Amino acid sequence: MTQTPAPSPAAASGNGPAHQPPPTRFAVFDGDLDDDWLALYGGARALAVDTEAMGLVHGRDRLCLVQLCDERDHTCCIRIARGQRAAPRLKALLENAAVEKVFHFARFDLAALAEGLGISVAPFFCTKVASRLARTYSPRHGLKDVVNELVGVELDKRAQSSDWGRVDELTEVQLAYAAGDVRWLIGARDRLETMLRREERWELAERCFACLPVFADLDRQHFGSVFEH
C-alpha cells in the first residue's frame, strides 16, 4: 500500500470546483486491498465503485484502476498492473452479498471487472439506470449532472480522458478525479431510491439492474444489440 495525502479535487485541478474537502481517509494500493481495508469495507452498508481503463473495448483495453468509497468517505484507489488477472481481496469484497455495490453506468464496470479480474459483482445499484427512470424531467444522466443536482457537488471531469495505464505514475490530478467519481455516489444513490419509490418505479429499477450482467457479458463478447429487429 502507498499512503498518500488525500487528494483534493479543487487543489489538484488548479481552478477546478471549490469547496470539496479531501476524503476522510485515503490510500493507494498496488494490485489489491490489504486486510485492514478489506475489513473496513466489509462492514459497510454500501460501497461506491468505479473503474478506469485504457479505453472502452473490453478485451482490448485493459483495466487500470479500481476506486472504492464507503458511506464514511473512506476512499482508496487500487492500481492494476498490466498482465494482472486476480485481486483476491477485492474479489471477496465485490462478491460479498451483504454489501451493496453502487456504480454509475454499471454495465461498463461489471464487464471491466469480470474481464480484467474475474470478478462477478453482486448485489449492485446503477445510478445511471436509476437516473433515467427517476429523473425523466431531464435529458442529462451523466455522473457530473446527477451528482450536481442530487448531492450539490460539481465534479471536475478534465482528467477523464487520460493515460490510466501509467499506474506507477498517476498524477495528483488523476487520483483526485478518480476519488471524486466515487465519493458522492452513495448520496446520489439514496436520493434516487427515494425518488423511484415515490414515483412507484422501484420494482422496475430492480428488474433493470437484474438485466445488466447480461448486457455486460454481451459487451465482453463484442455483440451489438441482439434485441433489434
What's this entry about, in short?
Helix content is 41%, strand content 15%. The protein has 229 residues and is of the alpha/beta class. The protein has one domain (9-220): Ribonuclease H-like superfamily/Ribonuclease H (Nucleotidyltransferase, domain 5, 2-Layer Sandwich).
Written overview of the protein:
This protein has a single domain (9-220), classed as 2-Layer Sandwich (Nucleotidyltransferase, domain 5). It has a six-stranded mixed sheet with strand order 1-4-3-2-5-6. The model is unreliable at 9-18 (pLDDT under 50). It contains nine helices and six strands. Helix 5 packs parallel to helix 8 (185-198) and helix 6 crosses helix 8. It is of the alpha/beta class and 229 residues long. The longest helix has 19 residues, at 202-220.
> Approximately what portion of the residues adopt beta-strand conformation?
15-25%
Strand order of the largest sheet: 1-4-3-2-5-6
Relative helix content: 40-55%
- How many domains is the backbone divided into? 1
Q: How many helices?
A: 9
CATH architecture, please?
2-Layer Sandwich
Alpha-carbon distance between the two ends:
50 Å
Mean of the pLDDT scores? 92
CATH superfamily, by name, is Ribonuclease H-like superfamily/Ribonuclease H
What is the CATH third-level topology name?
Answer: Nucleotidyltransferase, domain 5
- Give the number of DSSP strands: 6
